[in-house]
């Protein structure tokens, strides 16, 4: 195990901003894409 | 011989027409009728190979025009709504250019004679932008005087913007082409006095689109 | 031939793109300051970018007039194969819109204090590189024919594809400045143009038909 | 009265059967959740390996852990463009409508991955090289790739007729795919000749086995996700384009 505690895990050896910034934005983008897809599907279904 | 087999055309989600079939032999004069927006221009464009049909096929001499391509286009004269005239060139130059594009270059003298035959003697050397709408139409139509060797003429609204004398003149020219063994497809809204000589008539209003149809 | 005659009768268009080219290239020193060394360093790149933009601006005229007046229809169903027509039009367009840029570029290079041999290479690189710009641009112009927002869209489509020409062209001029031979870059530029000549007319012809169908 | 396009009707290859949007629609609907599930499982596994099993990098410290998202995104961005060009080419060659829809469906996902690759590349560059942006050959190519995606989507958005949009997009995608290697190599030359500030990504230290495993698992997760997203999007596109057809009306009628 690499991490002694949760705060150590979050700190990422002082690079937390960069690491979590990367993952945060990446997953936000994926969530956004899924959200857009759901909305588009909804609109397509209603369009009758 | 031109064969049109089961053509369908859609614009967006709307079906313009479907199941249009006809055969046009030599000496045939085909009038395509129909209300505005019924697809007359689309049909002509598909027949001459500019447009793409959603289904169906056009054959020339038994072969599909989509495979014949240039071999077909050398035999077809298409005049559309747009005059294909360059404002900056003179009527004579325009006519020469148009014929060169069609693979039938003509001399300057021949081009001038053709324009004269359409009553444009006075404007041979004027840039086209100086011509009136009717004169422009006539200088575009002057290609007909040089296109006796092209078997199939496809004319979209050739009578538009012409005066009475020019209409009569054009009708005689179409009949002359048909009598000489050619064939003509044209659209018009005006009651033409050559209607007696029309061998076939297609009314696109009769090919009313079916709702909810998909090709 | 016909296009050339036409371009001659519309001389003002040619001058517009040349003047645009000159203005863009002259604005950079105003924004950066008259420091000789810096200008010398950015000169090749700036002249190339300006040429790229000027060439692209002229592109939208490549098919637009023929599209509007119906001549393009006649070309599509003409006796000559469409790619050949496209090549002819691109050549005419290049002579009218890009050749003047090639000729005037050395003058702009002078503004940036480029040495004489670099000026020669600059003109040569432009002469070898701009044909591929016109050819690639023809595809973009054919694809965006008659579309709303055509001009901006055209820029979005073709500018990324212009990157290799820009890079090689500026490198050629910089190589001279560094005392190296520009030949490899010039050869690569020529190779790109030949490759574009062998592929782009067919792609542009296909794009034109798609735009009409 | 819907029938497949002429090519699809000819049973030359068995899977041409699925080239009709109507038959593909339920298939895509059935497959997409599976790919999404695979993506989720692999993603959790990959992140676990990446954060808890893989050791700290001796040179870069913890910030190297960004590669578990950066490299998969960069790979997918290029792979999706290739897939897009492939479907576009198939669409042009066989005139199947579904191929064009697939190409259209792939583009946004590809653009998102390209964006992620650029973003994470910048966040990796800052602690590693001290700058947000390095004009490295790969990053620059990636940026141009993003522009190519934008061009493709903007072109398709500007064309109203879906058939023309598909074909025009196909020509553009194929032109782009020919250009990508040229862009990459020219950028690389340019980069090596402008040494100085630039740092080459190629000098990455040899990776520990667990790092590689974690990265590969994440690559497969991204792959599965891209497939799932594309399938979902192609379902939306089918519904939008065929909404006047009988089967879509029937489908939506029963679904309501």
Mean pLDDT of chain B: 80
- How do the SSEs of chain B run, as a string of H and E? EEEHEEHHEHHHEHEE
Q: Structural class of the helices, strands and pairings of chain D?
A: mainly alpha
Q: How much of the residues of chain D is beta strand, in percent?
A: under 5%
- Note the quaternary state here: heterotetramer
Estimate what percentage of residues of chain B fall within beta strands.
Answer: 15-25%
- First and last CA, distance of chain D: 22 Å
**Mind telling me the CATH class of the largest domain in chain B?**
Alpha Beta
Give the CA-based shape of chain B.
globular
State the strand order across the main sheet of chain B: 6-7-8-3-9
Radius of gyration of chain D: 21 Å
SSE string of chain D, helices as H and strands as E: HHHHHHHH
Features:
heterotetramer; A: mainly alpha; rod-shaped; B: alpha/beta; 2 domains; 5-stranded parallel β-sheet; 4-stranded antiparallel β-sheet; 9 strands
Topology:
The complex is a heterotetramer of chains A (48), B (215), C (213) and D (256).
Chain A: H1 6-11, H2 16-46
Chain B: E1 2-11, E2 14-24, E3 29-33, H1 40-48, E4 55-60, E5 63-64, H2 65-68, H3 70-73, E6 76-79, H4 91-101, H5 108-117, H6 133-141, E7 152-155, H7 164-179, E8 183-187, E9 200-203
Parallel strand pairs in B: 3-8, 3-9, 6-7, 7-8
Antiparallel strand pairs in B: 1-2, 1-4, 4-5
Chain C: H1 2-9, H2 11-32, H3 36-59, H4 61-69, H5 71-76, H6 82-111, H7 116-143, H8 150-177, H9 183-212
Helix pairs in contact in C: 1-6, 2-3, 2-6, 3-6, 3-7, 3-8, 6-7, 6-9, 7-8, 7-9, 8-9
Provide a short characterization of the protein structure.
With 48 residues, chain A is an all-alpha fold. The mean pLDDT of chain A is 78. Chain B has two domains: 134 residues, P-loop containing nucleotide triphosphate hydrolases (Rossmann fold, 3-Layer(aba) Sandwich), CATH 3.40.50; 66 residues.
Task: Write a structural description.
The complex is a heterotetramer of chains A (48), B (215), C (213) and D (256). Chain A has 48 residues and is mainly alpha-helical. Chain A has one domain (6-46). Chain A is built from two helices and no strands. Chain B is α/β, with parallel strands linked by helices. Chain B has two domains: 1-75 and 151-209, 3-Layer(aba) Sandwich (Rossmann fold), CATH 3.40.50.300; 83-148. In chain B, a hairpin with a 2-residue loop joins β1 (2-11) and β2. Mean pLDDT of chain B is 80; it is low at 210-215. The relative contact order of chain C is 0.15. Chain C contains nine helices and no strands. By secondary structure, chain C is an all-alpha fold. Chain C has helices at residues 2-9, 11-32, 36-59, 61-69, 71-76, 82-111, 116-143, 150-177, 183-212. Chain C has one domain (2-212). In chain C, α7 packs parallel to α9 (183-212). The longest helix of chain D has 33 residues, at 21-53. Helix content of chain D is 76%, strand content 0%. Chain D is flat. Chain D has one domain (26-200, 216-255). The chains are: A mainly alpha (48), B alpha/beta (215), C mainly alpha (213), D mainly alpha (256). Chain A binds chain D through residues 1-3, 9, 12-15, 18-19, 21-23, 25-26, 29-30, 33-34, 37, 40-41, 44-45, 47-48, and chain D through 51-52, 54-56, 61-63, 65-66, 69-70, 73, 108-109, 112, 115-116, 119-120, 123-124, 126-127, 225, 229, 232-233, 235-236, 239-240, 243, 249, 252, 255-256.
């Amino acid at each position: 195990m690499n991490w002694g505690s949760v705060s150590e895990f979050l700190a990422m050896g002082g690079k937390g901003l960069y690491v979590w910034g990367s993952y945060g934005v990446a997953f936000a983008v994926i969530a956004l894409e899924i959200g857009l897809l759901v909305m588009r599907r909804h609109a397509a279904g209603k369009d009758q | 011989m031109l064969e049109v087999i089961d053509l369908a055309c859609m614009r967006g989600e709307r079906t313009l027409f479907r199941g249009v079939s006809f055969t046009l032999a030599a000496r045939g004069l085909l009038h395509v009728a129909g209300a505005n927006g019924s697809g007359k221009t689309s049909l002509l464009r598909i027949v001459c190979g500019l447009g793409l049909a959603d289904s169906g096929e056009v054959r020339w001499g038994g072969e599909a025009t989509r495979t014949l391509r240039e071999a077909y286009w050398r035999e077809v004269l298409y005049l559309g709504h747009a005059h294909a005239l360059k404002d900056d060139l003179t009527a004579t130059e325009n006519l020469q250019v148009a014929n060169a594009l069609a693979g039938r270059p003509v001399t300057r003298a021949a081009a001038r004679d053709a324009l004269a035959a359409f009553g444009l003697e006075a404007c041979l050397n004027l840039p086209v932008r100086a011509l009136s709408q009717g004169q422009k139409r006539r200088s575009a139509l002057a290609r007909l005087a040089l296109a006796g060797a092209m078997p199939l003429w496809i004319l979209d609204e050739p009578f538009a913007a012409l005066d009475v004398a020019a209409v009569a003149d054009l009708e005689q020219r179409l009949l002359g082409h048909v009598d000489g063994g050619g064939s003509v497809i044209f659209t018009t809204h005006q009651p033409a006095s050559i209607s007696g000589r029309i061998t076939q008539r297609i009314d696109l209003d009769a090919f009313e689109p079916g709702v909810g149809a998909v090709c | 031939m016909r296009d050339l005659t036409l371009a001659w009768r519309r001389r003002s268009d040619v001058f517009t793109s040349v003047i645009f080219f000159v203005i863009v290239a002259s604005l950079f020193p105003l924004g950066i300051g008259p420091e000789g060394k810096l200008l010398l360093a950015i000169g090749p790149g700036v002249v190339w970018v300006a040429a790229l933009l000027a060439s692209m601006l002229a592109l939208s005229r490549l098919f637009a007039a023929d599209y509007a007046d119906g001549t393009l229809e006649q070309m599509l169903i003409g006796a000559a194969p469409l790619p050949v027509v496209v090549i002819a039009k691109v050549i005419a367009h290049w002579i009218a819109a890009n050749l003047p840029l090639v000729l005037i570029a050395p003058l702009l290079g002078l503004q940036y204090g480029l040495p004489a041999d670099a000026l020669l290479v600059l003109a040569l690189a432009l002469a070898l590189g701009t044909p591929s710009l016109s050819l690639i641009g023809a595809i973009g112009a054919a694809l965006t024919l008659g579309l709303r927002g055509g001009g901006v869209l055209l820029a979005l489509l073709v500018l990324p594809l212009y990157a290799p020409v820009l890079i090689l062209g500026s490198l050629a001029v910089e190589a001279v400045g560094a005392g190296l031979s520009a030949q490899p870059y010039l050869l690569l530029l020529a190779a790109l143009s030949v490759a574009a000549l062998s592929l782009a007319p067919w792609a542009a012809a296909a794009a034109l038909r798609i735009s009409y169908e | 009265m819907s029938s497949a396009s002429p090519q699809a009707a000819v049973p030359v290859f068995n899977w041409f059967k699925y080239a009709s949007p109507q038959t593909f629609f339920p298939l895509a609907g059935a497959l997409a959740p599976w790919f999404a599930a695979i993506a989720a499982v692999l993603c959790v596994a990959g992140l676990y390996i990446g954060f808890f099993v893989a050791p700290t990098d001796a040179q870069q410290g913890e910030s190297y852990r960004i590669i578990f998202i950066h490299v998969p995104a960069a790979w997918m961005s290029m792979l999706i463009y290739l897939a897009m060009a492939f479907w576009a080419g198939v669409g042009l060659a066989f005139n199947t409508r579904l191929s064009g829809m697939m190409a259209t469906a792939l583009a946004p996902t590809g653009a998102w991955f390209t964006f992620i690759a650029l973003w994470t590349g910048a966040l990796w560059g800052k602690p590693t090289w001290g700058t947000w942006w390095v004009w490295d050959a790969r990053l620059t190519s990636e940026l141009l790739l993003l522009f190519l995606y934008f061009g493709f989507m903007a072109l398709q958005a500007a064309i109203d007729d879906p058939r023309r949009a598909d074909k025009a997009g196909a020509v553009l995608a194929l032109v782009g795919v020919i250009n990508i290697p040229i862009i990459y190599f020219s950028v690389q030359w340019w980069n090596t000749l402008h040494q100085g500030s630039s740092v080459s990504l190629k000098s990455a230290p040899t990776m520990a086995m667990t790092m590689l495993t974690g990265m590969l698992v994440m690559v497969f997760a991204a792959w599965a996700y891209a497939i799932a997203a594309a399938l979902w999007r192609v379902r939306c596109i089918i519904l939008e384009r065929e909404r006047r057809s009988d089967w879509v009306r029937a489908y939506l009628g029963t679904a309501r």
